[in-house]
TrEMBL record:
Keywords: Membrane, Transmembrane, Transmembrane helix. GO terms for cellular component: membrane. The chain crosses the membrane at residues 47-69. InterPro entries: NDR1-like. One of its GO terms (biological process) is defense response to other organism. The keyword Transmembrane helix applies. It is found in: Membrane. The keyword Oxidoreductase does not apply. It comes from the Eukaryota. It comes from Solanum tuberosum. This is Late embryogenesis abundant protein LEA-2 subgroup domain-containing protein.
C-alpha cells in the first residue's frame, strides 16, 4: 500500500490534429480574410464610382445651364432706309419738311431659345430733341440662333415747336443736310427649352444725315 501512494497517474491523452486538417483550417481562415478584404475593396470602389458619377453629372449640368440657359439681350439695328415723298420749304417766317420713311430692323437672337417680342414703339426719330416720327412693330417672334428682318414705316413731320424753339432748322435746310437721331427699345421674352423664360430689353441709338438734294439717308450709324 505504501508503494501505491507513490504512483503518479498518467496524463490524459492529447489529440493532435492531423497535418491535412491544420492546412484546411489555415486555408479557411485565409479565404475568409481575403473575402472580407475583397468585399471592402468592392464597397470602396462603388463609393468612388458613385462620387465620380455625381461630380461628372454636376459638371455636365453646369455646362448645360451655362450654354442653354444663359439669356442674352437681342441686338437690333436699322437697315435699308428709303425716303419717299420728301417735301421741304424754307422761308423767313417758317421752315418745315415732311417725308415718308420705310426701312427694316434687323434683330439677331443669339439665344438657344426663341424670343417673343411685344407690340411696342420700336423707333422714335428725333430732330434737335423733338419727336417728329414714331415707328410701331407688331407682336412677333425670332427663332433661336437666327436673325429676322422686320419692316417699319413712318412719317416724319416738323411742327411749330421746331420753328419757335430752335433756330437751326432754317440753316440746316439751306445747307440741304439735316442730322437726325433715333432711339429704339426692343422688349421681348426669351424662352429656353420650353421650360424657363426671362424678359430681356435692348436699346438702340442711331444717327443719320438726311440729304435733301439726293433725298437719301447717309452716314447711318447704330450702337
Amino acid at each position: 500500500m505504501a508503494q501505491d501512494s507513490h504512483i503518479i497517474p498518467l496524463a490524459p491523452p492529447r489529440a493532435y490534429p492531423k497535418s491535412d486538417q491544420g492546412l484546411n483550417l489555415s486555408k479557411s481562415i485565409n479565404y475568409y480574410n481575403n473575402h472580407n478584404n475583397n468585399k471592402n475593396r468592392k464597397s470602396g470602389k462603388c463609393f468612388v464610382y458613385f462620387l465620380s458619377t455625381i461630380v461628372i453629372l454636376s459638371i455636365i449640368m453646369l455646362i448645360f445651364s451655362m450654354v442653354f440657359f444663359r439669356f442674352k439681350s437681342p441686338s437690333f439695328e436699322l437697315d435699308h432706309i428709303n425716303v419717299q415723298n420728301l417735301r421741304f420749304s424754307n422761308s423767313t417766317n417758317s421752315s418745315s419738311f415732311n417725308m415718308n420713311m420705310g426701312g427694316e430692323i434687323i434683330v439677331d437672337n443669339d439665344n438657344f431659345g426663341q424670343i417673343n417680342y411685344q407690340d411696342s414703339s420700336m423707333s422714335v426719330f428725333l430732330y434737335d430733341n423733338v419727336t417728329i416720327g414714331i415707328a410701331n412693330v407688331n407682336v412677333g417672334r425670332v427663332e433661336a440662333r437666327k436673325s429676322k428682318r422686320i419692316g417699319i414705316s413712318l412719317q416724319l413731320r416738323t411742327n411749330y415747336q421746331l420753328n419757335y424753339s430752335y433756330g437751326n432748322l432754317s440753316s440746316d435746310i439751306n445747307s440741304r443736310m439735316l442730322k437726325l437721331t433715333s432711339f429704339g427699345e426692343f422688349r421681348g421674352k426669351v424662352k429656353a427649352m420650353k421650360i424657363i423664360s426671362k424678359h430681356k430689353t435692348s436699346i438702340m441709338n442711331c444717327t443719320m444725315n438726311l440729304n435733301l438734294t439726293s433725298q437719301a439717308i447717309q452716314d447711318l450709324l447704330c450702337s
